[in-house]
Amino acid sequence: MKKIIHKSETRGEANHGWLKSFHTFSFASYQNSERMNFGMLRVLNDDVVQPKMGFGTHPHKNMEIISIPISGVLSHKDSMDNKRSIEVGEVQVMSAGTGLTHSEFNDSKTDAVNFLQLWIIPEAENVTPNYEQKLFSEAERKNKFQVLVSPKDKQIKGSLPINQQGYISMIDLEADLKTEYELKNGAYFFLIEGEVSIADEIIKRRDAIGISETEKVVIKANKQSKLLIIDVPMN
């Protein structure tokens, strides 16, 4: 088993006033040669956007982009004529492929938006851009792994497709619950809330652990926890 631990406080941080962003991997002004990626997972940003602020229209190309709101509501508009809001419980997937532009904005006058954005390197470039969004049942991840995203060519029923052999799952764990996760590739475990023990390592709020070269890992919730698992090819 191979492990890499990324504590919350070791992440890169950018504070622009309207935006506070924590970067697990090198991004924008945060550059760290030892924190470039975990396999095909290239970006994991933990963003907080202030009321009535947001990201203006900007381009993407040849990247799988997944957005997961933690609190608040994020408005989205793109060059594929999608104009939607993304709420807690929903997941948004964009396959940028040959290229697209989009903007993200917090329309609230009072509440900040906190969302995770993941970039996964695709297995094929220059595909036709695609956008999908879905609300997932909270009950379906209570003490069990709920698959949010899966490969387009092996799509698990009810999940959203990406152009890579990657899987994103979430589980809400009751305190003291123990379970096992079976790896398909290498798995990056990011703890949204709570405290867990994964492969005998203590992981606290917004900490992460990447695990590869093993078939399964034991997870124990030390307190009520919300865990995100990004299972991606390592090369």
UniProtKB/TrEMBL annotation:
It comes from the Bacteria. Residues 148-232 form the Quercetin 2,3-dioxygenase C-terminal cupin domain. Keywords: Iron, Metal-binding. The keyword Hydrolase does not apply. Fe cation binds at residues 58, 60, 102, 104. Its cofactor is Fe cation. Residues 11-120 form the Pirin N-terminal domain. InterPro entries: Pirin, Pirin_N_dom, Quercetinase_C, RmlC-like_jellyroll, RmlC_Cupin_sf. Pfam families: Pirin, Pirin_C_2. The keyword Metal-binding applies. One of its GO terms (molecular function) is metal ion binding. Binds 1 Fe cation per subunit. Belongs to the pirin family. This is Pirin family protein. The lineage of its organism: Bacteria, Pseudomonadati, Bacteroidota, Flavobacteriia, Flavobacteriales.
